[in-house]
Design brief:
5-stranded parallel beta sheet; 382 residues; 12 helices; Rossmann fold; 2 domains; alpha/beta
């Protein structure tokens, strides 16, 4: 049963009032944007905002949506869940947005989800924990939408590459037990490894405040893993990789898209023999115009989240156009039936049953001597 009823039916009750207060006859169509713009993950938040800005400029240059321009209103939640919720309320109640691009943090998205059911304005984001869109099997958050492969899909993609292509069988894991995304990522990887004849020879955990991981890493290395797995955020994996190399581990390290730019620069010489699944590769032909424009405009290479920002705007613009309305409920209904929207990361189709993309691929990248090397694209195995 779909949570709080299906959009097509259950949201009809009480939606008239929302429609009256949000429909605009003139002026720009406002899209909200909640990101970390000044704290620990600001490199991601600013990159996403930059990408969204370029997308909105392109849409407006081509005539806008429904004959009107789009306007992006960004709010800095500084990596704090309560501030993200406050930003959501402000965007809905004061800025009167039609849809919102959400932060790429599963912990925060889990807190936002029930709020969206009350306020009925969709959040389209990159929170990979499946519970951010489906709180339990057969139930869906009506106003939460994911724009990239989920934790389970991403974990299976890199695990299958590590086992089938690299021939690895024995893994040691270090993950942040306080991070919902990290927990949601490691479970499917461990399951895939075991189901396919591999072993997780050691598992250790860390927490947000940790900066010295050598105790955990020493325990893991005693179990003689062939590869290490770090499904953690950028600040953590930089230090974890450096300390693993300092302890003498020279084998492969595998993980999520947090290993993309600027990881190699931050990790220095330790950034070698690393494999991860990422949303894009700089060398892909269809990305060259965007990368060139981004570098010229912002004087920096685009992080992965910049491509996410672009795609989020394009998917939301498509939903507004198909809805034929700026009413948030109508836009949420349209988001749930998104099909074949061309994105920078892949073509995007959203399942109405999960509110997650269907069949998106990820690029397998290797870091060798601080250089990113493209290997190929892969979709999640069953």
């Amino acid at each position: 049963m779909v949570l709080c009823f299906a959009l097509a039916a259950g949201l009809a009750a009480g939606c008239g009032r929302r429609t009256e207060t949000t429909e605009r006859e003139t002026g720009p169509i406002v899209i909200g944007n909640i990101q970390d713009l000044s704290a620990g993950a600001s490199v991601w938040g600013q990159g996403l905002t930059n990408g969204a800005t370029l997308a909105i400029e392109k849409v407006n240059a081509e005539g806008g949506v429904l004959g009107r321009e789009l306007k992006l209103v960004s709010m800095d939640m500084r990596g704090v869940g309560t501030e993200a919720i406050s930003a959501y309320h402000r965007l809905v109640d004061i800025e009167r947005v039609s849809a919102i691009i959400g932060p790429p943090f599963s912990d925060i998205a889990l807190a936002l989800a029930p709020v969206t059911e009350q306020k009925r304005v969709a959040v389209y984001g990159y929170f990979m924990d499946e519970r951010c869109t489906t709180p339990s099997p057969g139930r869906v958050w009506n106003f939460m939408f994911l724009g990239q492969p989920s934790c389970g899909e991403a974990a299976r993609i890199i695990a299958s590459y590590a086992m089938q292509d690299l021939g690895l069988k024995k893994f040691g894991v270090l993950f942040n037990r306080a991070n919902a995304w990290s927990v949601a990522w490691i479970g499917p990887l461990v399951d895939y490894v075991i189901r396919n004849g591999g072993q997780v020879v050691a598992t250790e955990t860390c927490q947000w405040e940790d900066t010295d991981y050598k105790t955990q890493l020493t325990k893991i290395l005693r179990a003689e893993p062939e590869a290490l797995v770090f499904p953690n955020y950028l600040r953590e994996i930089v230090v974890q990789t450096q300390q693993a190399r300092e302890l003498g581990f020279k084998g492969p390290i595998i993980g999520p898209n947090a290993f993309f730019v600027p990881f190699a620069e931050m990790a220095g010489k330790a950034a070698d023999n690393i494999y991860f699944a990422n949303n894009i590769d700089y060398g892909e032909p269809h990305l060259q115009d965007f990368i060139k424009e981004y570098r010229e405009r912002f004087k920096i290479d685009p992080v992965a989240h910049a491509f996410m920002g672009w795609d989020a705007v394009m998917v939301i613009a498509d939903a507004i156009n198909r809805a034929g309305s700026t009413d948030p409920v109508a836009i949420a209904e349209a988001l749930a039936t998104t099909e074949g929207v061309p994105g920078l990361m892949d073509t995007i189709t959203i399942s109405p049953h999960t509110h997650r993309p269907v069949g998106m691929s990820l690029a397998i990248l290797k870091i060798e001597n601080q250089n990113y090397i493209y290997i190929g694209r892969k979709r999640a195995p069953d």
